[in-house]
Amino acid sequence: MYAQEIKSTGKQVQSLEEMSPEDRAFQKRIDADIKIEPKEWMPEGYRKTLIRQISQHAHSEIVGQLPEGNWITRAPTLERKAILIAKVQDEAGHGLYLYCAAETLGVSRDQMTEQLLSGKAKYSSIFNYPTLTWADIGAIGWLVDGAAIMNQVPLQRCSFGPYSRAMIRVCKEESFHQRQGYDIMMKLCEGTPEQKAMAQDAINRWWWPSLMMFGPSDTESVHSAQSMAWKIKQDTNDELRQKFVDQTAPQAEYLDLQVPDPDLKWNEEKGGYDFGEVDWAEFFQVISGNGPCNKERMAARNKAWSDGAWFRDGLMAHAKKKETRKLSAN
Ligand code: BYC
Question: Is the pTM of this model over 0.90?
Answer without folding.
Answer: yes
